[in-house]
Structures are given as structure tokens and as C-alpha cells.
Amino acid sequence: MKARHDLAVVGAGPAGMAGATLAAEFGIDTLVLDEQETPGGQIYRAVEQPGLADLAPLGAEYRRGIELALAFRRSSAELAGGAVVWQIRSDRTISITRAGEGKEVAADHVLLATGAMERPFPIPGWTLPGVMTAGAAQTLMKSAGMVAEDGVVLAGSGPLLFQLAGQYLHAGVRPAAIVETTPRGNYWRAAPHLPSAWSAGGYLEKGLALLRAIKASGVPFHRGATGLRVHGDARASELEFQSRGKTERVETPLLLIHQGVVPNPNLAMATGIAHDWDARQLYWRPATDPWGGTNMEGIALAGDGAGIGGAIAAEHSGRLAALEIARRLGRITEGERDERATAERAALREQQRARPFLDALYRPADAMRRPQNDATLACRCEEVTAGEIRRQARLGLTNLNSLKSQSRCGMGPCQGRLCMLTATELMAEVHGVDPAKIGPFRLRPPARPVDLTAIMDFDDGTIPPEAALPKEPAAPGAKP
């Protein structure tokens, strides 16, 4: 890993691999930084691991990552695995920790492909042991071939919930129940977008086939569930909810929850990239141009980190960003960029045709995003409740940064990733304003928890070692 590169890509998921591979084709000296040792990201995690790539329950979509990884490995792009990026300065100097040591690399251009994370699901009891996200369970399946035992309950909304249920059934695991929280009114709101979604590359056909398989399995399926609450003392033991006017209770040793994914925001925000509130997808979206460019010179975004579109859409956005970077570096002309971009943009539009339907259908219920029970924890790290956030807003706080200073909400190890959206909407609800007026947390580096010894490894030459600490004046009469 050299000290300077033409391009540094942060994230080796579909957007990062596709963008880096194309950039390398143009002779661009490309370095890819990822926390995992191997490429794949979250969606294609462990795709190179022998045996797991052929694991039948993961399906054909997972195998698509094999081709991406092979092309990436054949390219001249360099992968620095096990690298945690915690700061990117405006001059595109990147601070990382790797193998317990602090390191810095610089690049003429940076492409952030940091992907998505699961949306918070703040219901009573969601912090109990025995409650995990569906994405975490899928990660265990991909990385270690581990699946839950019979009796697991899946609760929430969104395609990933049903995908995991299908994968579990294929692996021989029978869930005790699937508890879907999609509001019934969403079906009517999604209906106008159905024709466009139906023609979007067989996406809906695959979904319907999956739902038929789940129904045929005989697993209890509860639709339109509300009022979810997890019970348990030392750990989760039961899920309570309302469905069809009745209170239902399902015993379970493991509850997997999910209500969609959102961009993973911390590194982009800490880098200074501007974000806007996306009223359709209900999250803070980075402000980008058609090539992924941002307000930070030389820093671009691609993939789900720039807006949720799915793995295949992420590939195309990664290549589009790489084309513009190649133009900026003088490797291709503007005309060559536009010619190569034509097919990528057409493929990207094809992938995005189903988004309005999916966004309307799987829009999380208000009560799932904004806890109705004031005792529900909104900030897991600092144990700040929904009621405390509402109380602070009623006292006159109007933005998340003032809330942080008064309540410590957003000051824990996750640095706001698991509470920012909840806190934004709770404060907007109290004041009766659009969430855009509340604003996100003002994040600062380090974007990830980092060992102080790694920071101490740096010597950028700005402070001479002998002047790093102020010297105490010698006491009268003291010997030198």
C-alpha cells in the first residue's frame, strides 16, 4: 500500500468492486479499503469463501457476486483488507487503522461505497439479548454457514425479511412465525406504481414466487401487525403484537427484526458531505450529482450509501462514478465518458423502475419509526428514551445537535447511526415540522471508534516531537 494513489475506494461491495475494476481498466492506480479481509461487502459477504459461494439457500443473486469479485481480483486494483477508515480530510488524506496500527494514505480522488445499514426498529424490548436484525442473521449465514434453530420469529417489513425466511426454509429451518408490519394502506399507495415495477426485470415475479413458497410451508403468517413488544427478563422470550383486532403472543428464543435499509451515513457526514432529507425513503440522503460527485472536491459516492437502489443498481452507479473520475484524471475525454455511460445509465434506470413501488409498499409504519411508548429506548448506546427526546423538544430544543449536548443522544459508540433517524422524526413530530428542518447530527471524525494508540502512531510533521507537549517551568532551585 503506497502513500498516495490516483483513486481510493472505500468499500468493496458491489459499487466499490465495479467502480474499482473499471477505473483500473483505464490505468488508474486504484486502492480499495475495506473492513473485511476479502471483497464482497455486506450483500456478497464471504463470496470467495470455499463452499459458501455454492450454498443453495443463498440463491442466484448471491452468486452474482462471484463474477464481480473475480473481475475485481483480475484487475490491477489493490485491496487493503482489514482497514477501518475513520477520517477523510478535505485534501483526501485518509486515516485508517489496520492490523492494530494507524496509517494514512492519500488520493487524488476518493469514491465512498460504504453501502447500507438496517433502519432502526425501536420497539419495547428491542435491546434485549435474543433480538437481532435480519441482516445480522443473514451475515452469519453467509460468513459462517450458521442458521437459527426452529422457533425463530421474523418480524417487520421489507424484501429482506422474506428473503431470509425463504433462505431459512431452504436450509431446513422452520420459523415459528412471520409477523409482517406493513400497513394495509400501503398496498393502495403502491398500486399506481405496479405496472412499472412489473416490467422491471422480473423483480416482482421473484418476490411473488418467494411469498408462495413461504405460504406453502405452512409457517404462521400475521399481516398488518401493530403494537409490537418484546417480553423477557434476562433475554427475549416472547413477542406480543396486535393483528386483526386480536392480541397475539408467540414464544421464541430468537427474534429477527427488520424494516428496510438506509444509507450508512457516518463517514460521509463526518467528511463534510452535504445531506438532504429524503421524504420518500425517510432518511438523510447525500447530495450528489449524476456522477456521484459531492460538495467535497474530489470525493464522490456510489451505491446504497448514496441512496437505496439495490446491489445491481450499485454496480452501475459505481461504474458511472469511475467514468467521471477517469475523465477528471485525463484518461478519457468527456465524449468517451458519455458514450460509455449510456449503457450504464440505461441499466441503472431499469433497476430503479421498481423503486417507487417498493418504497410505497414497504414504507415503515409511523409507530414503527417513532415509538409510541415513551419508555422505549431510542438511543441504545446512551439509553435515552423516546420520552426524553420528546421532553427535550418540548423544552425548546429544535435540532439534533442541541439534543446531543443536553441528553447525550448520539454520543455513544455507534455515533448516531442507530438513533439519528428516530430522534429526527421524534423532534419533527413534537414541533410539527418537516424532518428536514431538524437537521442531522453534526458528525466529526473519528467516524468509527478507534484506539488512541492508533492515532498516536501518526506524525504528519506539523508538530515537532519535542514541542508536542508543553513543558512545565522548572521549580526554583531544581537541578536540570
Characterization of the model:
It is a single chain. The chain has about 475 residues and is an alpha/beta fold. The protein has 3 domains: about 5-115 and about 260-330, 3-Layer(bba) Sandwich (FAD/NAD(P)-binding domain); about 120-255, FAD/NAD(P)-binding domain, CATH 3.50.50.60; about 370-435, Orthogonal Bundle (Arc Repressor Mutant, subunit A), CATH 1.10.10.1100. It contains 16 helices and 21 strands. It has helices at about 15-25, 60-75, 135-145, 160-170, 185-190, 195-200, 205-215, 265-270, 310-330, 335-350, 355-360, 365-370, 385-395, 400-405, 420-430, 450-455; strands at about 5-10, 30-35, 80, 85-90, 95-100, 100-110, 115-120, 130-135, 155, 175-180, 220, 225-230, 240-245, 245-250, 255-260, 260-265, 275-280, 285, 300, 375-380, 385. The protein is globular.
The number of distinct helices, counting runs of at least 4 residues, comes to: 16
Shape: globular
| CATH hierarchy: architecture of the largest domain | 3-Layer(bba) Sandwich
> What percentage of residues falls in helices of 4 or more residues?
25-40%
List the domain count as a whole number: 3
Q: What Rg is obtained from the alpha carbons, in whole angstroms?
A: 24 Å
- Could you tell me the number of beta strands? 21
- The structural class is alpha/beta
Q: CATH-wise, what's the superfamily of the largest domain?
A: FAD/NAD(P)-binding domain
